[in-house]
Structures are given as structure tokens and as C-alpha cells.
Amino acid sequence: MLSNQRAANLVFVMVLAGAVLAKAEDRKEYRFKVGKGASISILNQYGPISVKAGARKEMIVTAILHSDKVEVDQSQRGKRVTLLSHLLPGADAISGQVEYQVLVPADASVTLHSTTGPLHVEKLRGDVILESNNATVDLRDLADDHVHVKTLNGPVTLTNITDGHVEITSLSGDVVLNSVTGPLVEVSSSSGRINYDGDFGGEGEYSLTSHTGDIEATAPGDASIDVTARSEQGKVVSDFSLQPKHTSFPIRAGSAFAGTVGKAASSVRLFSFSGKIHLKKRQTN
Questions:
Q1: Could you tell me which residues come within 8 angstroms of residue 87 by beta carbon, excluding any fewer than 6 positions away?
Q2: pLDDT value of residue 3
Q3: What are phi and psi of 83, to 5 degrees?
Q4: Overall number of domains in the chain
Q5: By the 8 A CB rule, do 67 and 111 touch?
Q6: Which one of 30, 208, 221, 231 is at 20 to 30 Å from 178 when CA atoms are compared?
Q7: Average model confidence (pLDDT) across the chain
Q8: How does strand 128-132 pair with strand 109-114?
Q9: Residue 244 is assigned to a structural domain of this protein
Q10: What is the pTM of this model?
């Protein structure tokens, strides 16, 4: 067991380290007067960015800097606001972290770039563009907007997106879509899984493609879709009784299917090279 003196020294060191860390963290607040249709851009190499709807004509940014090895460059030109995490000499993934908590007008267009920090956007009606390497992406409660997401390995989750023009490209991150509808919903992944749970509403075009990842799409029994599914080397299954239709490729049981359900209002395309595809019918209680 530690001697009393050693234990006291250890406690002192821990308290001192905590005090140094607390001192190193620096909380800053920025306010920008913006009108309708503001454009917001934030580039943050390390650390999370969270953007939510706030006041109608003001943008409020709280930035928490984890050390004096990073600073925030900020500028405004009219309705365009730009924030940049500026890494200073000696900064790394720990000391270079900045946490952004941002409130913007609901109709603002937002562009976010991050290498590792989680990206979160909710309750906006403007366009949303997100780019990251390994960051977790979470979008929810968006309406009437264009959503563009590009990521390498980070997982992507979209929840309650209505009347959206959605385009997601991922190298290996899984993509989950819950209650996502719009005139265009397009997801492309090299090896990540794609999971869609919604109603394919809005008379839109839905395209889910993964080279080696599995695709699972769940819809209600009264869905109105024109669906085509094919996997070159994976298994393909449908829980729906489809009205058959002509296709440009041969239909082979277990590897492809095509047909319509209801009035076929929305077009649904499910493609994979070697992943499994399952069009599921949602179970009702």
C-alpha cells in the first residue's frame, strides 16, 4: 500500500493536473447579427460541432478551447459567417480540440468540416453540408433542405428528415436512416451497412447502394413503391408480395427481384455487389 506521504503527494499531483487542465480550457462566446438565409461555415479539425435552431436573426457560438495551442479565427461578410480552428505550433489531437455549440436561425445554410469530432445538426430548414473522416454524424428533425454528407469511416444517422434532397457518400461507415423522405434520397457506401426504416413517401427516388455491405430497408405494409433489388453475389429477400414488372436484367430467385406495391408512387433501388439485401415489412402490433 502507498505510504501516507506518497498518497498525499499523489493527491496533490492529481489536483494540480486538474487545475492546470481547467485553466487550459478557455470558453469563448461569439455573436453575429445575421438576416434571413444566413450561410454558416465551421472548420474544426479536432472536437465536436453541434448546431441547433435558435434566434431568428442572430448566430450565437460557444467555443471551448482545450488548450492555448489552438485559437478560433472568425469572420463575417454580410450574411456569411466563417469560423476556423487555427492550430498553433505543437498542437495535437488532444491540445488542438475545440468544442463548438452553435445556435443559428432555422433557415440558415450550414457547412461543417471535421476530422474526428462528432457532428450534430437539428431542427433546421436550410441546406446542410457535412464532411468528415472518422467523425460520427447525427442529423435530426430537418425539413425542406438539401443534405450532403461525405465521410470515410464515421457512422451516419439521419432521423426525421422530411421533404429532403439527401445525398450521402461513405467509404466504410454504416448509414442509418429513420423516417427519411423526400424527392431524392441517395446513399452510397463501399463496405458500410445501410439501414432504412421509413415509408418511402413523397413520391421520391430512393437509391441505396453498397459494394460489400448489407442493405436492410423496412417499410409499412401499405407502402407505395416501385422497387428493384439486386446483388451479384449476395442473398436478396423481400417480405412483400410484389406485382411483377419488366427489367433490363434477368430476375433470378434469391439474387434479384423487381415489382410494385400499391400505386408505386416512389421509386426504390437497392443494389449491392456481395452484400445481402432485405426489403422488410414492418410488423404492426
A1: 45, 69, 70, 96
A2: 55
A3: -125, 140
A4: 1
A5: no
A6: 231
A7: 89
A8: parallel
A9: yes
A10: 0.86
Q: Which residue has the cell 410488423?
A: 283
Which residues lie across from 148 on neighbouring strands? 129, 167
Give residue 6's pLDDT: 60
Q: Which residues of 180-216 are buried (b: 16+ CB within 10 A; e: fewer)?
A: bbbeebebbbbbbbbbbbbbbbbebbbbbbbebbbbb
Q: Residue 22 has which C-alpha cell?
A: 481547467
Q: Does 98 reside within a domain?
A: no
pLDDT of 254: 80
pLDDT at 131: 94
Q: What's the CA gap between 151 and 164, in Å, rounded? A: 19
CB 171 within 8 A of CB 134: no
Q: What is the DSSP letter of 116?
A: S
Give the separation between CA 269 and CA 277, rounded to whole angstroms: 11
Residue 88 inside a domain? The answer is no
Distance CA 253, CA 269 (A): 17
Q: In the numeric block, which cell numbers belong to residue 226?
A: 416501385
**pLDDT tens for each residue of 166-215:** 999 999 999 999 999 999 999 999 999 999 999 999 899 999 999 999 99
Domain residues for 144?
Answer: 136-285
Does 267 reside within a domain?
Answer: yes
Q: 407502402: which residue's cell?
A: 223
Q: What is the pLDDT of residue 242?
A: 87
